[in-house]
Amino acid sequence: MAATSNTSTTPVDSVSADELAAKAVQKRYEGLLMVRTKAIKGKGAWYWAHLEPMLVRNADTGLPKAVKLRCSLCDAVFSASNPSRTASEHLKRGTCPNFNAFAKPISSVSPSPTTVAAGTATQTNRKRSSSSVTITATGQVLVASGSGCSYQATPLAIVDPPRSFGELACSPSPGAVMTASDGSLAPQNQHHLVLSGGKEDLGALAMLEDSVKKLKTPKTSPGPTLSKSQIECAVDLLADWIYECCGSVSFSSLEHPKFRAFLNQVGLPPVSSRELAGSRLDVKYEEVKAESVARIRDAMFFQLSSDGWKVRSFASGDRSLVNLAVNLPNGTSLYRSAAFVSGFVPSKYAEEVLWETVTGICGNAVQQCAGIVADKFKAKALRNLENQHHWMVNLCCQFQGFNSLIKDFNKDLPLFKTVTDNALKLANFINITPQIRITFEKYLLHECGSTEFLRVPLRDHESLNFGLVYTMIEDVLNSARALQLVLLDETYKTVSMEDPVAREVAEMIRDMGFWNDLEAVHSLVKLIKEMVQEIETERPLVGQCLPLWEDLRTKVKDWCSKFHIAEGPVEKLIERRFKKNYHPAWAAAYILDPLYLIKDMSGKYLPPFKCLTVEQEKDVDKLITRLVSREEAHIALMELMKWRTEGLDPVYARAVQMKERDPITGKMKTANPQSSRLVWETYLTELKSLGKVAVRLIFLHATSCGFKCNGSLLRWIGAHGHSRVGMERAQKLLFITAHSKLNRRVFSSEEDKDAELFTLANGEDDVLNEVLVETSLV
């Protein structure tokens, strides 16, 4: 982004500016229409049902001139600058004559001779839980709560209040209502109900009289009656929900009075938290574990997945959670166990944990394990296990591989250091200079609708995770317009006369190169983060690794061209990280998976050998010969040559590569992911030796991403982790919730979902802000 320049305006420029302004107004109008449409469908604010965007055009040119909001209840027209404020002032505060009649509060009651309310009329509208108390002409007390329940009571004592109370200055005609000195409404009858607790006693009085009435004429409540089987089924479902929430819902919350009242309301007995955390948990765990063991036993082979070895800090402090799961050939994943580790974990210990897990699953039939994928220990533990057991293919997680690229760029790319230093200098100067900060906040409020400090890392950036620096860069970019306006303010000019840092920062903000570099770094990191997020969501198989890295190279070349960055240093870092992550199985799976066959000029579907380097072709031969017996090695290579020249029948190839649109994401995805393996097991039976390798190879996952444990359980483990019983319960809870989430293919935690939910809740404001900012820039 560049600073605005002061240039003279020609007539042609004026016309162009009018057109740009008209486009901005039109875009804002369309944005408001989109927000209103979503709101009417239930995904936005309530007031859009009554406010309609209007486009006002210039009478001379016919171009859009302004956007207004029209109230559909009274036809009044307002500025569209702040719909929320318009709704508050016009609708909520009673300015609109038709709004109160259109939407009455839930707690409103029909007029009665005398009414005593807990607050003003405005407060009654705003607080649904408020109650209204009515004293009828006969002296009965009616209390109506916001929940719709009402109580009726006859008075216990009606006396004339002493004049010394002074709450009511005079006594108008019966049935009138006056405002007392405390702002509340008080009845002005000839007789007044006096209770020692004041008006707060009226509700309790009504409940007392209601209880007396029930005792005089007892009636059984017609509440819901459930059978024993229905109750047991409901309690089972409740228990499953609590287990699968895995710490988000505490067992002690079952004892909460409101929850017990809810159970009673729907006809369920109280649920014992001790039982749910004890016997029921044990039964559920054994049931889920038996199902998991049966499904693993039914598969011919599996891949062990291990995630969590990378150190992650959380509130519980000294313990980290390592998840161990099993990936089956049919695409499903099953949770196996969890390991809790503290501090630095040596590679030898990780190797022992992984191998003990493998033997614990398949006993002596260790060849049933086709390989391991983990987020750490590729160079030692994984390689040692692969060297000791020739049939294994052990991979490092590509989620971590792509994430590590950001660290590589931050450490070794000079552009990142320059941008970080400049952004730190600018952000620190703005934050710590009081006059400049106040001016900046003023313009930031005008441009973005908020006033916030620029978020700056607390320590030196070289010792920080780049995520903190990236956040600071985002803040600076988002504040670009406000920063440019700050330079034009007299306050900044005054400060810059005495402060050389202010002059240096001003030159930086005016420099086009600074904004180009800042946006370049932000764009590159964002590009990689988006690929990382896609990898975590899609969980690619090993055959997709080479296409993924090639896709990254293509995107980075486009990035270099866009921001005029030299390609050499960037490509060198990508190639270095590629070699650290590369495994010969990438090339072999890419060749053997029918999903990547390429149609040649003759119509044949052949494996993509032309996409491999010479070294990668050699890796394919070496890996295949390693994964078969010595007697079958030459046969497997001959079958590989046949596969290379003949490929797959076009009909089967097209069937494997058939795609359909995902209804959730809208992306095109493979219609039947298992068809790649099934073709080898059913149709390509003549390639027997090569087929054995193919079916064990192409199903392997390239990431260890899977079940995410929420922070609540991690904190609970930190507090009770030294207790044997506590750890056993934690293991069982983890197993149950992970089993459920992996079955449902839910790979995000509750915290992620809550963050997404609140993001969607604020989506309307984001759209409005985007429209407002673009309009202001024009």
UniProtKB/TrEMBL annotation:
Entry superkingdom: Eukaryota
InterPro entries attached to this UniProt entry: DUF7963, RNaseH-like_sf
Domain DUF7963: 17-100
Pfam families documented for this protein: DUF7963
Designated name of the protein: Sterol-4alpha-methyl oxidase 1-1 isoform 1
Originating organism: Hibiscus syriacus
